[in-house]
## 1
Amino acid sequence: MSLIGRLFVILFGFLAACLVAGIIVVGAVLFPEFSDFADSQIDPSALNVILGFGFIFLSGFALLPATIVVLITEAFYIRSVLAYALGGGIVGLACYLGLIPFDPDTLRFDGIVRRHLEIMTGAGIVAGLVYWMIAGRNAGAWREPRRPLTPPPPLSSHSPAPPPPPAS
């Protein structure tokens, strides 16, 4: 696989992983509203807008940490599903902690909500698995040499003999 083709596969895998993570985050955050349908119905167009913003939000925040994970796995030919799940969890954690204010005096994050941390980490793990299914299984494939073409099978002994060369 050429490097250019591999970059397209990586980009497609990243976008699909962000879409799945956005759906998970929006679904988990809106779960209390989903569980109470007695009051009113949820507008499908509003849900589509929320999912779109969730996708854009996650893809923007996850780009740098996910790029680091992709570079490491491509450089070292890491193709393990566990590595991508762990990397996705770390990316989700980094995305969440990037939004929380950090107090340098006490070296602590102020205002961590445990449920939101769990949602982002879980969404990152699922996104890592989706990325592995699309692009991670073949990490580093662009550096492998192409297989040589197999030679044609030998002629059988029952095949007709080639014609004699012309006499001069």
## 2
Amino acid sequence: MAKTKRRSVLKLAGGTAAVSLGGLAGILATGRTPAYAQQKTVHWLKWVDFVPATDQLFRKEMMPEAEKALGIKVNLETVNGNDLQPRVTAGIQSGAGPDLIMSFNNQTYLYANSVVDLTEIAEAVAKREGGLFPYARSICSDGKMFMGMPWAVIGGMIAYRKSWLEEAGYTKFPDTWETYREAAKKLKAKGRPMGQTLGHTFGDAPGFTYPYMWSWGGKEVEADGKTVVINSKGTIDSVKFMQGLWKDGMDEGGLAWDDTNNNRAFLSQTISATLNGASIYIETLRKPDQYKTEKGMPMNKDILHAPLPKGPAGQFGFHLLQSNMLMKYSKNQDAAKEFLKWLHTEANYAKFFNSQKGFATPCTVKWESDKLWDEDPVMTPYKVAARLGQAPGFSGPPNAKAAEGLSKYIITDMYAKAVQGMPAEDAVKWAEAELKKIYSA
């Protein structure tokens, strides 16, 4: 019996027409070709892009091109950005799931033991494209391995209605928090408050609260990455100021917003300004007949971008960094690596970059001088996002402990609790206790 099985296998492997009836029947019954002839599939899980044209580009053009060039099948799956991290956890626990998963910020450190080292690919791209910005390198690499392949930085700037600010007496967007509060109060009195999420959402909430805290001199830990120092005068002052700012000038519904609610509020003309990627402006460019001002003019003509204001300790930014992690449980690691290399060739990455129109800032120096940044001055402020970003955990490293603090929304919740009525000192003490649980473990 053993000899019969061996002959059948040998005949199949040799490509002869002599296939045993039993073997042929088995193949027909399963509906699958023999294992050696099966095409490899790379499953890539990424966020639903805030620029719809990009996901259309991937599905209709780039994924078919990749399949043809690499001889693989690409399964592109998109989900809400807030759903990515639970999918990572589920894949690791079950030992099965997408081969490549998009990661945000320093989440890479949380999964360092569950991902494949991508140093070879990352360093090759860095060498070819003038180097990686330190922000991208610090978040994707712990100095020993690249836990994620740097993909893009989604710059966070304040989108604002130019005419509404002018009507309130401001020819430029406020560059200090005091002036910001003053302007917000005037605008709210006219039914045009500023808007900001303090909810559990991946981008706009921490993108606002971290730089805001830093600008007042607050920080989570010292440079040693161990000593929790959030309970400081700077942090308490920032919380007290936020309490007044929230009541005076903000849309108080922002406590429950995710990363899409502020877009909708701005586009429906219920808020005058909000921290965001460039997706609001890009959407008004895409649909100029749909989005118009109260005077009937295209809204895209009345939108400008500005960085977050500066505080007593300076001006800061925290911009969403995206990378793609290759999971250790993947059975298609070699194919996934080839797919990553293909995505990051200059010609292919350029298609992605151009489709974003400045919403995504590349992680390597080369793209900072790309002509795209000169095509629309409204988008130019996003050009330096990758160069100037500061990572969560400052002034310590953006390691797994800092990533845990970010994932638990401790900094955002500190401000949310305070604007809902908790005394500033108590809100800061709560954050201190939560961070000590993480950093003392």
